Amino acid sequence: MAEGDPTNADIARALDEVGDLYELDGAVSHRVLAYHTGAQSVRESSASVAQLAREGRATELPGIGATLQEKILALTENGEIPAAVELHKRWPAGVLDVTRLPGIGAKRARLFYTELGIASTDELRAAAENQALRHLKGVGPKMEEAILQALERRTGDDGRERILASRALAIAEEVAAALEAACGKGVRATPAGSVRRRTETVADIDMIATGPDPAAITRAFCELDLVERAESSGELAARVVLHSGTAVDLRVGDEARHGNLLQHFTGSAAHNTALRERAVKEGLHVSEYGIRGDRADRLELFATEAEVYRRLGMDYIEPELRENRGELDAAREGTLPALVSLADLRGDLHTHTTASDGQASIAEMAAAAKALGHEYLAITDHSATHGFGNDVSPEQLERQIELVREANERIEGIELLAGSEVNILPDGKLDYADDLLARLDWVVASIHTAFKASARAMTDRMLAAIGHPLVDAIGHPTGRLIGKRPPYELELGRVFAAAAETGTALEINSSPNRRDLSEIDARAASQAGVRFVIDSDAHREATLANLQWGVATARRAWLGADAILNALPLDALRASRPRARG
DNA sequence: GCCGTTTTCGGCCCGACTGTTTTCAGTCG
Question: How many helices, marked H, and strands, marked E, lie in chain A?
């Protein structure tokens, strides 16, 4: 990626906007869809799509053909897409804002603009207040009211915030438990959708519930104490907004089709669409109600998802893989990976104590890790130049090594490793001397400062650390904070090649707001031959359990236990490190 | 606009809910 190139996120946004503009313009829906699927494909690429387009290789990405590549190239070289410029002459940006209001889509926004000249949400509000919309075909007083409410509720300018998966899962489990309690015996509520697929963030929570009286479940759902208001509710589906502001969609059904319903509502949309298109070619039609043949005879109902997939000629696909990233072919061919699970992990190799910025002692962390079933735990407090007022000087680290060794003597049932999370300085050097590092059992090297350097400089800095024989793993390799801070610039291809060469592990950091490496990057790294550690980066006892989120990212990256070093017994782990390789 | 065991053209999942309608269009997932 050259300096100044648009990022994949920039390109994806631009393609989405062209799609939205074409939709306003009345283009056939499949063309509109092509822009949005192309945008998603760009978002999921591990390589710089600007660079790929320059090399004429962007068409290798699924959903990108010659036309989209040409537009990506124009954006890369000239900063704009000619088609977008042309469309914007007909459709002002304010009209796009109108389409983003809930309940308003392209057709209504177009109607408001062409009939009444409404070109912004402010003008729309005025028209609704003056009851000027109700005279349009297909619009009435209730829609005016709904528009005013939507404008009233809108916070900021990008509507509803996405929330971290960890928070969404907690909310989903709370709602599911409340719904089961409200409905009584025989009703089963199960979180589905992106929460179940363990994506990084979720826009809303999807849930299914099955029981003898589906309509009664929907009614009970809308009346839960957790619910602020129902946005829609019918016999078979409802959408509510919780007091916390999170939206929850529910689909209900009878127990006999629990598998169909769960498969449908777990998604993703891309997975389901691709799965159904394939099924149609074989004369089968798949929906949440069941599977039926071409001649519309009876519906086949399935109580489990495994049966649904089997009926379609596929192995069971774990929810984390259902993103239309090759899992359908693999399920058909019997080549799905055996994914790593939390139970495979034998230890945690990145944790903090009160020696730096953690909140618990060595003994407390050890006890908590032992309770989780860990066989080993590395204590890796921040190093000398951490710079947050809680650095560990070389002398303090020597003392800390002694303390860990003493604790290890004292505490039975878990092996404690004396380690450190060492800073990678801007010049690529580490901030402890090698003879001190050599006394440690485990060394994580991370970047915590000077994020703004060029991709070339940051990559050289990272390669220096990877090349250091005493570095066992690179912590949170891209430095991103989900929704808060983008990754620093890095030539990941070079980083992965180097890590594969030296045997230095790359971390999948399990903190729910890091998940770093991301699933996309981790999958690319794995294909380059990299091996990983999944660490909690816990700063207190409770967050040791965050490992589940690192495991989720690893699973979404198609990783098996064989790619994860801390799935190994301690002796084998030690033997696998660069320093053991000589 | 993309794609190919229908292969360079013709087809591209499936259904719920709302508000507006007297049978359906628009939106959403």
Answer: 25, 17
Measured torsion, CA atoms of residues A554, A460, A6, A204, in degrees rounded to the nearest 10:
20
Distance CA A321, CA A198 (A): 10
Amino acid at A467: G
Nucleotide closest to A139 measured between CA and C1' = B20
The Å distance, CA of A64 to C1' of B8, is 17
Q: What is the arithmetic mean of pLDDT over A529-541?
A: 98
Per-residue pLDDT tens for A354-407?
999 999 999 999 999 999 999 999 999 998 776 655 678 899 999 999 999 999
Q: Gap from A30 CA to B10 C1', in Å? A: 13
Under a CB-based contact definition with an 8 Å cutoff, are residues A379 and A537 in contact? no
Q: Residue A511's pLDDT band (boundaries 50, 70, 90)?
A: very high
What is the distance in angstroms measured between the alpha-carbon CA of A359 and the sugar C1' of B5?
A: 61
> Is the model's pLDDT at A580 over the cut of 90?
no
Task: Quote helix, strand, coil % in chain A, to nearest 5.
Answer: 45, 15, 40
Mean pLDDT of A112-117: 96
Residue nearest to nucleotide B29 (CA to C1'): A269
Q: Pairing between strand A473-474 and A505-509?
A: parallel
In angstroms, the CA A100 to CA A357 distance is: 43
Residue range A253-263: mean pLDDT, rounded: 96
Nearest to A378 by CA among A492, A537, A521, A529: A537
Q: How far is the CA of A141 from the C1' of B21 (A)?
A: 14
pLDDT, residue A158, reads 47
C-alpha distances (whole Å) from A434 to each of A45, A378, A507 are 38, 19, 22
| Partners of A420 in beta bridges | A381, A443
First CA to last CA distance, chain A: 34
In three-state secondary structure terms, A548 is helix
With distances taken from each CA to the C1' atom of nucleotide B25, the closest residue turns out to be A138
How many other CB atoms are there within 10 angstroms of residue A566's CB atom? 26
- Which positions in strand B are less than 7 Å from the protein's CB atoms? 1-3, 6, 11-21, 25-29
The closest nt to A249, taking CA to C1', is B29
The span from the CA of A157 to the CA of A151, in Å, is 10
pTM: 0.96
Round and report the angstrom distance from CA (A288) to C1' (B15). 8
